[in-house]
Fold this protein.
Amino acid sequence: MPSKSIFDFSNSGDAAKNEETKEKKAPREKHKREAPRSAAAHKHEISKSKIAQPPAPVPPKKEGTIRFAHLADCHLGAFRDDTLRELNIKAFENAIDKSVAEGADFIIIAGDLFHTNVPDMRVAERCARKLRHLKEKGIEVFVLYGSHDYSPNEKSIIDVLKGAGLFNKLGGGEYVGDKLKLKPSEFRGIPIIGLLARTSGLEKSDYEHLDTEALEALPNPKIFVYHSAIAEYRPSFLKDAECVPLSLFPKGFAYYAGGHVHERREVDERGYGTFVFPGHTFGADFRDLESDAEEAPGFYIVDIESGAINLHFVPVEIPEIMLADFKADGKGALEFKEELQHWANGGNFAGKIVMLRVAGKLASGKPNEVELEKIRETVLEKGALVCVLNRGSLSSAERLAVQIDTSKSKDEIEREIIGEFVSKASFKDDALNGKKGAELAISLSGALKQEQRANETKDTYHRRVFGDVRKVMDSAEGQK
Ligand SMILES: [Mn+2]
């Protein structure tokens, strides 16, 4: 069996590290998204149990210490697959149970508690149940809108749960002139201030107008909760994302409870305080799960002891994640299929989340001849909880017979390829032939490939796409 990790690469050096800034955390500082995926060997498997060093247990809470849990990016309701969706909720429940067991006095959830502002009601019910459990134990919860559960007019599940008295909502404030004055919450005299996220990083202008003087005048220890990537610390996989420079943050907070960046990070920033991103609790997409294979996700238990901050990372309990990477390069479809089937037949997948990624260019045959669905079935028969297929980059030499001029734009290339295919076809309905047919195909694919907008419900999204498709079809009908 192979034993080399697909994340086997050298650390390329952390960004934005200077003498004034001390980065405390080593294990996840590697910029794993830059890892070359096409290592020499054709297949690798990786399981988190082989890599992660279990963090030290949280010490008992001392007299006079205030202890809180800091979670972010739970993304409840993410995943269409029922098993993954359930595992995501379970990870959140586990994080809450552990926070209670560790004696947290309060809990901060720094955005994206839910994956959408209007989630599946079964998911909302599970979360509400857990929050009620905290309420009964007298553990206060402070929640900030994230970019996923944000609603501009407060029509989010977050507002429903807040209305039910299950938690305090952070992020309140108002503009006075061109200054944004944030309204502090507090826990036993500790001010907790939140700056909510809006969609697509729109909160940057809020940072630019933030009345930092008023915040800096608040007594310490104090906590600043936010849901934004910080330019100086952002991981490479977010290099094109909207982010906020450190200089826009108020100074002098003991703790800066971050969310939004799905990767764990701790930084002691001189003049500011301790910035922490706990990462997600389970993840919302396959990239998250792949990183969870390397190290279990989790949250922080933070102690405030006579003004000092002590951090303890607590992993959540999730099933083992196995990454299996196969390269098709130079192989025939049937040969590749046999290789995969052989692996699946001999694998031990019991109780695991299996992430099967196939990539590369087949020398002969077509990707569908590999019959990945059958491979998946075998993996499930062998006891996997779920088998996630990632076949996006599997291609075939046979399929790539189209000549592409790479100096052209994406749209031009698309038009040419569609035009070429349509010109070879012959339909009874003349509207589908020739230039007219190609135009129709291009318009239709444009309408169909629209993505769901943030804060658009599935229903609204479907109606919008159907509406646009109908318009295209109607105008094609009209031209006949
Ligand atoms: Mn998130």
Summary: The longest strand covers residues 386-396.
